Each structure stands twice: as structure tokens, then as C-alpha cells.
Amino acid sequence: MFLYSDGLTDARNSRGESFGIQRALALFGEQINGRDKAGQPYKTFIDFVDPDAIHDDVSVMKIDCEALRP
């Protein structure tokens, strides 16, 4: 399960494009399928956005529900 703030999807690049739900879902899918490397989701986000255009908090939390199963 992933929880995230709207700062993730609302962040924009230098062309004015928002990171958006589709890119966020792709990041989450990589996490679920184990195809991500340590720090890769953060790098993917940072490479996309214009750091001068971030005006909101960006928070993401992953909850491993597998660990909660009996």
C-alpha cells in the first residue's frame, strides 16, 4: 500500500508538465514488482521535476502489507 501527498503528483517539470498519477503509479508498480533499485524512485522523481518549481511538500510512504498477514 502506498500513501502519498498531492505534492508528488502536482510537481511540474521545466515544460510545465505535472508528474501526475500515471508516473506515480509506474513508480509504485516498480516497487511492488521488485524492479526498483535503492533510491531509484527518488531519482526518477528528481530527474523529472524542476527543483525551482516545487512549492509543496512531497511525501510517500510504502506499507508492506505482506508482513501483516498471518
Write the topology of this structure.
Elements: E1 2-4, H1 6-10, H2 20-32, H3 40-48, E2 60-62
Could you walk me through the main structural features you see in this protein, from its secondary elements to its overall organization?
- This protein is mainly alpha-helical and 70 residues long.
- It has one domain.
- The protein has 3 helices and 2 strands; from the N terminus they run βαααβ.
- It has helices spanning 6-10, 20-32, 40-48; strands spanning 2-4, 60-62.
- The protein has a two-stranded antiparallel ribbon with strand order 1-2.
- It is elongated, with a radius of gyration of 13 Å.
- InterPro entries: PPM-type-like_dom_sf, PPM-type_phosphatase-like_dom.
- It comes from Methylomonas subterranea.
- This is Serine/threonine-protein phosphatase.
Order of SSEs: EHHHE
* Rg, nearest Å: 13 Å
**Strand tally, please?**
2
Shape descriptor reads elongated
Q: What is the helix fraction of residues, given as a range?
A: 25-40%
Oligomer type: single chain
Summary, kept brief:
Residues 2-64 form the PPM-type phosphatase domain. This protein is mainly α and 70 residues long.
Which structural traits does this protein have?
39% helix, 70 residues, mainly alpha, two-stranded antiparallel ribbon, 3 helices, single chain
